[in-house]
Every structure is written in structure tokens, then in C-alpha cells.
Specification:
Dehydroquinate synthase-like, alpha domain, alpha/beta, globular, Rossmann fold, two-stranded antiparallel sheet, seven-stranded mixed sheet, homodimer, 2 domains
């Protein structure tokens, strides 16, 4: 059973297909319009899934090339971007080519940025192979690479022609990476979908067991939520900021631990617990609601809820350096009850410092 | 007298202001929204106009930085792009910054591509300082850099917030570069505006004397024509191709002479004479009309009309390698009378070879 979801962006609208074993299904074929296709993947994913996809596409009579990148965020650079462009030029891909991103968020972000800028834009298809990429980075059109002085500082908003979320490939994903994706799934429940949050509380065991129908539902609801927010605010001028619930805290934690201690989703998990705490201090969330958020994260039996012991002043500074700052003012995403997020640039710094200092409470 | 022209692209619409001494006028100010502004210029233009612009903007209380690039097409590379990004990061420009391109087409193309991709997009203003940039590259949203294997292979479609075409700055432009711009001005008359073509035949002396009102009219009509075509076809799927009248021949001539013999506008001038000849052979243009096109170009007393002696087969190949090829088919822009261009992918190769071999006729 394949589920189909449309991301409504006018002439840039596209479909997300969710289901088992989509990777080599014929669903893909109509979206590869020209005679050339280039699959961009990484050294971890390629041995598992590249040859099947290559063979499927080659059987349709197309020129199929593949470019395999080293794995990891440290390779999400302008140098890797430039290498992919060089390869496409060397292999003589023209403006009618189609790019396919086969991998996690890093592969998707680089491939999307190449697609946005190769010969001023060619179509691309996302085949995300991590839960995080399926529910987050493959939807919304953010593409790009990191700069030594900051993450995602170079990039473009560019929409894919299609996203294929194959639930089968999650079986080869390491547990820790799977849970990092679950953190973002929980986020959607908190910021916009109280019913989905309740479903997660009830269905978490099925999800952790990788039951196909539970996976498909979680991915579908997450993508639908993100798609709705992105459709309302494609270029992140307002509403879209709510997708960053937990992220301002999370990014600061990642930065202060040199991106070594936590996966992005893990830092976001802690960030959500902190954002819930701050929302409670601001009177937006009851203590019981803040507790439900923390409890659901803890129930994953793997995602952290407890921040590392970091200096509050350093955290403040790391949060202020975040690029989601408009002309010097810190904007924070808060929860008003479970299921409704809001953005505020009026947060009392004293209360923020209380949350940053609430180590004992959050880690009890 | 400042003329104002709107490029109608829905939410991406913007104004072109044309007039004398706009460079340091207050017309600019409302378009610099944030507290930071970075002027990107080159070593030729900066000594002439940078300090005036800097002082004007600094007086408005903003952080004003400037990045001066080496001059020339050979620096339109990913390396230069990367250098500009590095500088913006070093100077801590945030998402609210505004970039200003102060220079010719190369500065505009690089700055536009940086603006399209710095933190996934910041606003930018074009202040083109060559006639070619004023009537061509500053309108239409094409941005990008060259790849060693091809021109403009990396880039994006990205619209400026404003274009300021200051006719005064053309007084410091070398005559040869000025005429290269006139070639593109003539092109607009041929492809879409028979009345403008007739005006050019009558007013060429005034234009070559840099009379402000003649300059403003020529720039206005050229930008209006390009703006109309771009508005109808922002991403170059159809109509926009007519803007390439003379360019497929021109690009091939540039490539086969290693980009050393002709300025781009000069190669386009020859290309237009060749495209007119081919249009005549196809029965689209009368001999007299083809002659009028050649005569107007020749009357500039500086633009070439005569192709260099190049091997016809090499020309064919160079034209076929042009990136305006869709899945292997050569599309050519032709003139049906003066004032109406069309695109055809059905040109009889024998007739094309006749044009390529018509050296004696074209150079008589």
C-alpha cells in the first residue's frame, strides 16, 4: 500500500510517496523526464541500495551515472558540491538530466543544492534512506552545504520533483539514527498535531518495532505537517520558524559539544525538553503537559532528555549566534499547550536563564 | 529625469530606475532593508565609484562593507564566489544583509549567485556600470559563474530587488565596451520592436555621442523588451530563447577564437549578421531586411559584421555543444522580418552550412 501526499506549492508542487520497497518500483519512472540520470549517494548507502536502483533505471534505456560521496556531515562542504558539479560536467550531463539523491540528509542537501544550481537548475528526486531525512530534510526545499563558520550557510530553496520514502530501507538504519528521526516525529505532534502526539504515546512500541503500517503513518503525518507549514511559508519568513521547536537550544548544545556528543535529533530531543520547560515558566504550558513531552521522548529508550552540564552564559551566546536571529533579536519557538507552537522574540532573559540553569530538574 | 520601469514577475517583481547620477541618489535607500550592506565591485570600477556609494550608505547609519574582485571574465569562477562568501561570513553579515553589485556583467552575475545562495538567499541590488549589463545581464535574473568546461554552468535564477542604471557612468566606459552593449540594444529592435529598430537607425549618432536622453531611451526600450520576455518566461522554457538571437553563432565564434578575439557583444554582432543571413535563406527575411540589420551594426563604426575564417564543421560542432540544446537537437533563433523572432529546431543543416560558408558575402 503506497500512500501519496501532495506538497502544495503552486507550480512547484510535488508528491511524496510512502510505502514498502518503493526504491525499485515503477513509481519513479515518469519523474525522470530526460535521457540522463545521475544518482548521488554515499559510501554507506551505495553498497546496500545503489545497484538495484541503477539496474532498474538502466533497464528503461537511460544513461545512468552514479556519484558516491564519503559519508558524514563533515563532507557537506562547497568542496564536495564542486566535486559533484565536476563529475556531472565530465559525464556531459545536460540541462535535461535528472538527479537522484539516495541517502540521508547530507546527500539530500548537497544533491538539492547541485540540482538548484547545475546549469541554473535541473530536476531532482529525493530517496531519503534515514527516518530523519524522510520526515524532515526531504520535505521543504531547503538545500545547501556548510561553511567552516556556520552550518547551512550556503544553499538555496529548491523543491524536488518527487520524494520516495521507502519504509523498508529503515531496517538497515542503525537504531541510534532511527531514534534521532523519532525526535523530529515527536516534534510535529508538539507543534501542531495534538491527535498525532496522542497516537505516538499509544503507538510508540509499534513504531520502535518498525511495523510498516506504524512507520508509514508516522512518516505520513510528519510530512503532512511539515508540508502544510512549508506550503504556508515556503521561504521561512514567519510560520515556518515553528519547525525549529527545540532547535535553537539543540543547535547551541551541538555547537558547545563540538558536534561530537549528540546526533542532531538527539540534541533536538534535549532542546524540546528545554523549550517545554521554558514554555511552562512562561505560563504557556502546564507542568503536566511539559511532563508528557519529556515522558514520550524518554519512552523511546534511547533519546536523551537531560542537557549536558554547560555554562549558561556560553549557551546564551551560542543561541544568539544562531542564524535565526533577525537584526540582533533572539527568536524562540515555544509551545502553547501540546499541538500549538508560537514564535516569540520577547522572551524574558531571566526566565531563559532559569531554564538554562534547570539541570537538576530536567535530569531528575 | 529618472525613468522607472517595472519587471512584472508576481511576488518577485522589481523596478529598474534609469537616469543620470542615480548612483548616490536616495532612490537606493528604501531598498536596503537591514542594517548591513555589502558592495561587491571590481578593481576597475571601484576606484571610480565605490567611495561615493560607500559614503552615501554609511551616512544612513548602516554597516557598509566592500569586497573588490579582480576584473574580468576569467575570475567568474566558483573560487571567486567562494571568496565572496568567506568575506561575508568573516564580516558577520546575517540574513538581513543586502548585497549591491557595482560593476559589469561579471560582478553582477557573481553577486547575484552569492545573493541567491548566501544563507539560502538575501536581497541584492544591481548597479550595472556597463551598457551591456544595463540592457542585458542586470535584467532577467540569470546569475552564476563559469565552469572550466563551460560558461555559466553553475548558477541560479534569482531576481534583484532593484536595478539602478546610471547613464552618467557610461562616460568612463571604454568605447569598445560601449559598442558591445549597443549590439545587444540592436538585438531588441530585431527580435521584437520594429519601431525601436527604426528609432535606432535615426538616432544612432546621438546614442554614440552619449546624449543622456538618447541613452535613457535606448536603455529603457531594451530593458522593457527584455523585461516583457522574461516576465512571460522566467525560467527559459520557451519564449525567452528569442533573447539569444545571434548568440548561438556568437558563442561558437567566441569559443573557436578562445574568447580572445572578440568581446561577447562583438561576437553577437557577427552572430546577428549570420542569423539574419540564415533567416533570409529560409525565406523568413527579405534581402533588404537582412541588409538593414547588417548596415545598422556597421554604422556603429566599431562593431564587426564579418565572421572570422573558421572551419564550418568546427563551427557546427561548437554550436551543437551549446547548452541551449535539448536532448541533442539544435535550436536556432531566427528573424521573421524585422521585429519578430522565432525559435526553430527544424533548420535544414544544408542551409546552415551555406551561412557558415558565406564568408565572402557577409564580409563584402
Amino acid at each position: 500500500m503506497t500512500e501519496r501526499l501532495q506538497v502544495d506549492l503552486g507550480e512547484r508542487s510535488y508528491d511524496i510517496l510512502i510505502g514498502e520497497s518503493l526504491l525499485t518500483s515503477t513509481d519513479l519512472d515518469p519523474f525522470v523526464k530526460g535521457r540522463q540520470v545521475a544518482i548521488i549517494s554515499n559510501e554507506t548507502v551505495a553498497p546496500l541500495y545503489l545497484s538495484g536502483l541503477r539496474e532498474h533505471l538502466a533497464a528503461t534505456g537511460r544513461q545512468v551515472d552514479s556519484i558516491v560521496l564519503p559519508d558524514g556531515e563533515s563532507h557537506k562542504t562547497l568542496a564536495t558540491y564542486s566535486h559533484v558539479i565536476d563529475e556531472l560536467m565530465r559525464l556531459r550531463h545536460n540541462r535535461s538530466t535528472t538527479l537522484i539523491a539516495l541517502g540521508g540528509g547530507v546527500v539530500g542537501d548537497i544533491t538539492g543544492f547541485v540540482a538548484a544550481t547545475y546549469q541554473r537548475g535541473v530536476p531532482f528526486i529525493q530517496i531519503p534512506t534515514t527516518l530523519l531525512a524522510q520526515v524532515d530534510s526531504s520535505v521543504g526545499g531547503k538545500t545547501g552545504v556548510n561553511h567552516p563558520q556556520g552550518k547551512n550557510m550556503i544553499g538555496a530553496f529548491y523543491q524536488p520533483a518527487l520524494v520516495l520514502a521507502d519504509t523498508q530501507v529503515l531496517r538497515t538504519l542503525p537504531k541510534r539514527e532511527f531514534l534521532a528521526g523519532v525526535a523530529e516525529v515527536i516534534k510535529y505532534g508538539v507543534i501542531r498535531e495534538p491527535g498525532f502526539f496522542a497516537w505516538l504515546e499509544a503507538s510508540l512500541p509499534a513504531l520502535l518495532d518498525l511495523e510498516p503500517s506504524a512507520l508509514a503513518h508516522a512518516i505520513r503525518e510528519s510530512c503532512a505537517c511539515k508540508a502544510e507549514v512549508v506550503a504556508a511559508d515556503e521561504r521561512e519568513s514567519g510560520l515556518r520558524a515553528i519547525l525549529n521547536f527545540g532547535h535553537t537550544f539543540g543547535h547551541a548544545i551541538e555547537a558547545l559539544t563540538q558536534y561530537r556528543m549528540f546526533l542532531h535529533g538527539e540534541a533536538v530531543a534535549i532542546g524540546m525538553v528545554m523549550a517545554a520547560d521554558l514554555s511552562w515558566r512562561l505560563g504557556l504550558l502546564s507542568q503536566a503537559e511539559a511532563q508528557r513531552i519529556k515522558a514520550l521522548i524518554a519512552a523511546t529508550d534511547g533519546l536523551p532528555v537531560c542537557p549536558p552540564k554547560l555554562d549558561a552564559t556560553a549557551m546564551l551566546e551560542a543561541m544568539g549566534m544562531d542564524k535565526k536571529v533577525t537584526d540582533g533579536r533572539l527568536r524562540l519557538v515555544l509551545a502553547r499547550g501540546i499541538g500549538q507552537a508560537l514564535v516569540s522574540d520577547q522572551v524574558d532573559q531571566a526566565l531563559l536563564l532559569q531554564t538554562l540553569g534547570a539541570y537538576e530538574k530536567l535530569c531528575e
